[in-house]
Amino acid sequence: MELELRKIYIKDIVFDEKTHVDSGVLYINREEISKLILEDERLSEVSIDIAKPGDSIRIIPVKDVIEPRAKLKGEAFPGIDGVLDEVGRGITYALKGCAVVTTGPIVGFQEGIIDMSGPLAEYTPFSKLNNLVLSIKKKENVSPHEHEEAVRVAGIKAAHYIAKQCLESEFDESETFVWNDLSVKLAEYPDLPKVAYVYQCIAQGLLHDTYFYGRDAKEMIPTLVNPLEIMDGALVSGNCVSAGSKTTTYHHQNNAVIRECFKRHGKEINFIGVVLSPMTTVLNDKYRNSIITSRIVEMLGADGVIQSQEGFGNPTTDLMMICKKLENKGIKTVLISNEDAGVDGKSEPLPDGTVEADAIVSTGNSNANLHIPKMDKVLGDLDALEHITGGFEGSRQEDGSLIVEIHGIMGSHNLQGFSKLGAVTK
Amino acid sequence: MKRIIFYTNQFFGQIGGEDKASIPPRIEDGAVGTANLFKDKVEGEIVATIICGDNYYAENIEECREFISREVERLRPDLVIAGPAFNAGRFGIACGDVCSFVNDKYGIDTITGMYIENPAVEIYKSNTYIVETGNSAASMRKAVPRMAALANKILRKEEIGLPEEEGYIPKGIRVNVFHEKTGAERALDMLVKKLKGEEYRTEIPIPVYDKVEAARPIKDLKKAKIALLTSGGLVPYGNPDHLPAATAKFYKKYPIKDIDRFAEGSYESVHAGYDPVYANENPNRILPLDLFKELEKKGEIGSLYEFYFVTTGNSTSVADATRMGMEIAEELKEAGVDGAIMTST
Amino acid sequence: MTPISKTVGAIRIVPAVAIPYPVGNPNESEEKEREIRERIVREALMSLVKEY
Fold it and tell me: Across the interface, do A351 and C7 touch by the CB < 8 Å criterion?
């Protein structure tokens, strides 16, 4: 399996009569995008804006962020917008340095903030991208589940469409990823430790779901996946477990652990497999999935594993259960988790633990506060703040500034280790 | 010129040994006893030395605090230095208490020094700077420059670095930082080391929770008063008291005396950690008030406490949850409640 | 969340159905759901009279 990723670096984004890319500038025809989105009859209107790094713009409440990608032959985002067919091979075009951001009146809790400048910008990777912001409204009788789906699909559709208009344009960089079958992999680097990635994804209901080839992960048991298909949008986000923890579709497409494993493959490790492990709300599922996941890893013959999760609280239990089983099989683990050490940092950082979890990377204390100034423009809906995790009554200060918890910032403590945020004990 | 108050005990204050451990607090001008060792090393003037017997402090904490408060208000120091207490338990408690309450009450920076096993360390480490010292006064020569160095950084209002760098015992406070490398890079670094059998350091130590002692069982349910609680965020419709969707720092109680169950549409879930659809359809799925009311009517339980308690157990910190638990327990005890049932989501 | 309850030291723990409906099960018929609910409540009360 071989995937060539052709990257086009976007340095600017403007509205134009034709959607296309030229010399690093992405041109967008607003009406085309609008028409595409409103094809879904559940939606009533969409306003389209541009938010660039350094702008005094606040986007709230953010639902998803998607990197525009399209395949030269075949379709990305299979099962959601693309035709349901196998992906992860051939040639894929990716528009780097830009993203589609969906926002609009709130579906439910835990949708977050992106500030394009100011102190919050440091905490979210999306402040550094040229963003096409879609503020989407639904029609009256649309249920919350339908609302979520309509907005989720709209973002994917827009990102897919934009990338399709850029196929065969000049690209800036090409990176080829190769994924051989196990017989080749095991023979390739016999002296390097075999490392697998346990990719835990949340599967817990409205705004807490993930989709694999369009399939609700709640209805899946753990399975071996091809990391190259993840790069083609096989895994799509349907969740906002706390904006800080939310694995946006962008994070899936650019999974940091997968990227790092490929970097070190053949040098420090032999990257042999990725196991997608859904986390549900039912205790027996957690027991069962931890059995299946650890057994798949064992069958791969892995020496070590990186585990990532999504969410916090009950997902930490899945993290620890799987860790315990792996360590007891003699497979070494490193876990990635955030902390809820209280606003003063004095509280116990994790809600669950097991003695075998002796190697954990922290993506920061999510309860910590940040004081952020007013922005000139708000895209979306500022009143959403009090309903968002990390926002609370009293968040809004008299001078128009806000106090938010790290929890409320989009991608701030991303649990696949995308960001540089961490915590130390002082 | 920055002003410093020094605190020490009867021995290091050159008054006497164990026989003088019960002397009440007194204050002398300038540096007295051990304070003299710091005099030329600190970037400030030691304007006064407070001396108190270790036993006296332990037995008269309020009075000693009042004494010290008066002197602090009179002398307006920029810093208070206490000890070092090394491994001395009572002296450690006194130093820890002085540093802790002065910082709390006046916001004045404080610093002391102790051996890591001094029992006062666990109690006071997060409220002041405790420089790590050897276990006896024989290590005074090493302790003083270390304490002075940190004291000067504090006086100069410089940023205080990590415990390992500055020589103080970790306060146990988690502080966010931006690392050089991403979480994924650090994870792979850690795994490669672990696989090679090399030393690595976890970024989050695994929590160790306090042991909870089981309460005595209820003798007769038919006579028992039972209280109901939930961390599922179930509140009267409209969330009148704005219970947050997550990271709750407070709880609320609502009356259940005059209802038979939680009626659909009158109550809702505001907990952001789960799909509320099923709770909103039938709130009794979150807290089975209907079933408990039936049991009360049938006489299978004595009575239900007239309120139910609710908070949102979503990313709520352990410290806040512990505090809330203690407050609720107080109220239940006062009300003569025998048992409590809590549902969690 | 039984495992977390155990970790933080809770003693009298009764496993519930699922996170969005600890004392309920919307996937079952009304009678079945009632049975399940009554069982959980009974278990909880029994644990209050049990010695630990």
Answer: yes
Can you give the residue range of the structural domain that contains B83? Answer: 3-166
Q: Is the pTM of this model over 0.90?
A: no
Residue A137 CB burial class (10 angstroms; 0-12, 13-18, ≥19)? middle
In chain C, where the domains are located: 2-49
Q: Is B292 on the interface with C (CB under 8 A)?
A: yes
Q: Which H or E run includes B67?
A: helix B61-75
B231 contact residues in A (CB cutoff 8 A): none
> Which among A352, A354, A355, A356 is the top mutation candidate for probing chain C, defined by the most C β-carbons within 10 Å of its own β-carbon?
A352
Q: Does C9 touch chain A (CB under 8 A)?
A: no
Asked if B65 and B132 sit in the same domain, the reply is yes
Give yes or no for A290 touching C (CB within 8 A): no
Residue B14 lies in a domain: yes
- Residues in A closer than 8 angstroms to C8, CB to CB, are 351
Residue B211 resides in a domain: no
Q: Is B24 left (phi over 0), alpha (psi -120 to 50) or beta?
A: beta
| Residue written as token pair 């091809």 | A226
Q: Residue B253 to residues B236, B264, B277: CA-CA distances in angstroms?
A: 10, 19, 23
Per-residue pLDDT of chain A (426 residues; tens, 9 = 90+): 999 999 999 999 999 999 999 999 999 999 999 999 999 999 999 999 999 999 999 998 899 999 999 999 999 999 999 899 999 999 999 999 999 999 988 766 656 899 999 999 999 999 999 999 999 999 999 998 899 899 999 999 999 999 999 998 999 999 999 999 999 999 999 999 999 999 999 998 877 889 999 999 999 999 999 999 999 999 999 876 678 888 999 999 999 999 999 999 999 999 999 999 999 888 889 999 999 999 999 999 999 999 999 887 788 889 999 999 999 999 999 999 999 888 888 877 887 888 899 999 999 999 899 999 989 999 988 676 655 555 554 577 778 788 888 988 999 999 999 999 999 998
A109 touching B (Cβ < 8 Å): yes
Contact B178 A122 (CB under 8 A): yes
**Do B157 and B79 belong together in one domain?**
yes
Q: Does A414 touch chain B (CB under 8 A)?
A: yes
C-alpha–C-alpha distance, residues B181 and B172, integer Å:
24
Comparing C-alpha atoms, which of B171, B160, B169 is closest to residue B118?
B169
Give the separation between CA C1 and CA B236, rounded to whole angstroms. Answer: 24
Task: Look at A351 and C20 and tell me if their CB atoms are within 8 Å.
Answer: no
Residue B183 lies in a domain: no
Tell me, yes or no, whether B271 and B140 share the same domain.
no
Total domains in the fold of chain B: 2
Instruction: Name chain A contacts of C7, Cβ cutoff 8 Å.
Output: 351-353
Active site residues of A: 240
Chain B residue with CA closest to C33: the answer is B285
Q: Where are the domains of chain A?
A: 2-408
CB A113, CB A388: distance < 8 Å: yes
Q: Which of C7, C23, C52 to mutate to test the interface with B (most CBs of B within 10 A)?
A: C23
Q: Assess whether B11 and B124 both reside in one domain.
A: yes
Q: Is the predicted ipTM greater than 0.85, yes or no?
A: yes
